[in-house]
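Most newcomers find our protein records easier to grasp once they have seen one. A learned vocabulary of local backbone shapes supplies the integers on the structure line. Here is such a record, shown just as it appears in the course material:
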Amino acid sequence: MFRVILAEDSALLRDGLRRMLTDEGYAVVAAVGDGDALLDAVAAHPVDIVIVDVRMPPTHTDEGIRAALEIRRRWPETGVLVLSQYVEQRYAVDLLTGASARVGYLLKDRVADVGEFLDALERVGAGGTAFDPEVVRQLLRRTTHTDPLRSLTPRERDVLAEMAQGHNNAAIAGRLHVSQSAVEKHVKAIFDKLELGQLDGISRRVLAVLRYLGS
């Protein structure tokens, strides 16, 4: 199991997450209440993943996300799973303008679904991505009349949303009740239309698409 550091200013939620993760076999090496303490903890205890709230003391604006971005810069091998009460589109885009893996952004309501939360945590820890469906939907709505996204078919948009959440082709096929070969054709069409065909790996598959949406 992965080694984890929690950063959440709500003592109730922090303790609840710590107990849940410990019960599931994760090693929670630190649980802190502000961004500075998070950076100190990561420096002292290298871990696989940090789970961090966007808004933390002292101003409760962007301390958490700034700490997360600093972790991405200083310790790129450390996965970052951000939790937020609301969809903060600017912060979601900021997370995407850097390393192209080990990152997730979930709404706090998603934590109530333990299975979904743990699945996202596992994906981030394993080097993948995990974006809340509502975050993806709002990023997808950030389009104008000149955006190539308007050229996507409804099914291609469905596939893009699933890709952005970090699902592979097999998972997308199951979730959308189509064949895997159909998903592969849709993925190719998406990258062709978004002019992302020359990118490689997960940056092409997931994060480059979201960067494009946020550009």
Residues 180-193 form the longest helix (14 residues). Residues 3-131 form a domain with the Rossmann fold fold (CATH 3.40.50.2300). The first strand starts at residue 3 and ends at 7.
